[in-house]
Amino acid sequence: MTAPPALLRAASVSRAFGGFTAVDSVSMDLRPGEVVGLLGANGAGKTTLLRLLLGLLAPTSGAVELLGGAPDRERRRRLGYVPQGLGLYRDLTVRENLAFAASSYGAAPAPLEGELAESADALVRDIPLGLQRRLAFVSALAHGPSVVVLDEPTSGVDAVARAELWDTIRAQAASGVGVLVTTHYMQEAEQCDRLLLMSEGRLVGEGDEQAIVAGTTAVAVRTDDWARAFDVLDSAGELVMLSGRAIRVADGDPDGLRTILSAAGLDATVERVPATIEERMAVLARGGGAA
Amino acid sequence: MTFGLASASVELGGRTVLDDVTLRIAPGSVVAVVGGDGAGKSTLLRALVGEVALSRGSVDAPPPDRIGYLPASAGSWAALTVQQNVDFVAGVYGVPPGELGARRGALLERAALTSASDRPASQVSGGMRRKLGFSMAAVHAPQLLVLDEPSTGVDPVSRIDLWRLVTQAAAAGAAVVLSTTYLDEAERAASLVVLDRGRVLAQGPVDDVLDAFDGVVVRTPVAQRPEWSWRRGRDLHELLPPGAAADRADAVVPDLEDVVVALSLRSRAEVPA
Fold first, then answer.
1. Assigned domain for A3 exists
2. B245 and B186 fall within a common domain
3. Paired strand residues for A242
């Protein structure tokens, strides 16, 4: 079976600003029906890659394709975008926001349903954040885009509202839309079909969560005196994190940790555990953990 | 002694925004308050620091000069440098000038802000500004540290710095309470409180919250009762009616996300908004 053609594609694309390479020979694609998560710390190059893919920035080298061609104005009409700040006009009503968005794409405004219909004439600044997020979604999807780009789509909302927003995203994917989600939250990453991890402009991991953390190890340390153990390990320069009453050490070496702890007179159990995506990012930010 | 709230309720404009919440925060521990926008997290924290009056119940907190509070809004002066912001707050709290240098140095060092200490607060990244806010809240070594969404909008690397700061404050003996919208972050705390519409859905150590959940959750492509289902990746998770058999092939071990969604749905069915 041949895979359907990519909706978005980057082929060894790079972008430099002066002497600084923000995106460094990245190749990736997004296919119809897929939800792909783009992960990375601040400065990893996510935003620059996104701007290259959307044709808002020209590559220094390499090539970018949107819907089978150059990302020009005509092809960008088939994009839907929800920025992290939602991109809504706070001093316009719900209905006015939808009408404005639809007219800029030359489409009919989306019908208002449920709670959004009840708030149709309310100013956006007066409705709760969860409803604002839903409005931003409806507004970005009204013109029936083929590619949807979402920047931290569920930030700030509760678990139920988050699941509802993901339902909307999944419905889009099920109808053949390709969805690219940029995030640095685990809970959003878990909802994606495939993940891409960037660090210092390069693509350093691709696949499911296991593939992303491959090469990074973590160690769980349990002791009665977690506060002192934390202090001792932190002072030794280890990458320590609290996890309930246990301490996790990213990229830690169990034997080395045992030595540090026993030298401080601490009785502790030390065991290897699977690393999290966050720990992988922390290790990368420290300049370690080459894939 | 521990700090906290007992049977606390808050009414604002005739609406109950906090409904009978009891919470204890022991010195040397971190408690996470988790919920979405409008759940009552900020109200709870503001009640704790005395910015909001309770309509019922009681607050048990140290005197104001022994509390450190990071509000949800920025909380630093844009025109002052990072160091001036910390020094100003230290002066307000009466930190002895002889101690200030060492304390500020240690805080900024742990916050990875040393190299930015002479930059105006307006010219540092969002993550750095939250770490600065933390440093300002903690410079007088408060007994109770109250942090309103310290990590919202902060990238993962700064988030780890922030958690290191939080952990060090607790390790030094402070009682720390912080709010977050993210469950994975709440799992880092020794104990959590899940709020929805002002009510406590669950509280305690994460493992206790998971153990106490009595529902059966299944993974399914199509929900039998859509109103009791929620999205998890390509499939849905669905809460079965009370009394359903748990030994089904499609049953999953509910994680914190499942438990919080299921408890929210139950609570909202009992008490419509």
1. no
2. no
3. A247
